[in-house]
Amino acid sequence: MFTKAAVFVTACLALVGSASPTEKRQSLAQVITRCTKPNTAALTFDDGPWVYLYDVSKALVAANATGTFFFNGNNYECIYNADQIKRVQYAFDHGHQVASHTWSHKDLSTLTWDQIHDEMWRVELALQRIVGVVPAFMRPPFGSYNDLVRQASYIRGQKLVIWDFDSGDSVGATPAQSETDYDDLIAGHPSTILALNHETMETTAHQVLPYAIQKLQAAGYQLVSLADCLGLPAYQSEGPRGTPDSSWTC
Prior knowledge:
Layout: H1 2-15, H2 21-26, E1 31-32, E2 40-48, H3 53-62, E3 67-71, H4 82-93, E4 97-100, H5 113-131, E5 133-135, E6 137-138, H6 147-155, E7 159-161, E8 165-166, H7 175-187, E9 192-198, H8 202-218, E10 222-223, H9 226-230, E11 235-238
Parallel strand pairs: 1-7, 2-3, 2-9, 2-10, 3-4, 6-7, 8-9
Antiparallel strand pairs: 5-11
Helix pairs in contact: 1-5, 3-8, 5-6, 7-8
């Protein structure tokens, strides 16, 4: 399983410069915890693709807003299933940013070097196949990482993304609690917002998100992608989509 990961790492090393593999192994990826463009808010959605993606996207598009989806490869369901492929393509085709949340949502800080790369390259390959892009950003599951994870991310040309606001939807917050948390956040009017939400939560898609969009825009925030709130490219490369075959499997 890790042979492919090792091959991918070798290829990445060739792309990131002429320094030795040891030097590159010791370099650490940047960790992003906040946006940098004033008056921007990046609404991000973890753990998909899932059934509520369509409603999340529609709520954003209706408000002329853009979201960022951190996708897993094999968490709730295999990303290569026909319905999952449609969801990923729908998000991308409607102008949202897609990014990596790793393959199976494991705590990367507990894994070996090869296991970390395996978790990363599988979902990167899936996104390249399904929508033709190699993501420039990775969010570690649970926000958990160590230097080994940062070293692997650096080699893979990715930045790690955390957040500066958590809606609490994945840890038991009720919609009312999440809405109150958004109200408290907006009342402090930070220059920028990088918000964590989960597209796998029905109440997030149908209650909290419409509320947050209205409140954030009323407070003067532009709702943009993660890449746009940072002024950085969303992808390392963009190209044609693949055609599903027997290798598209979990």
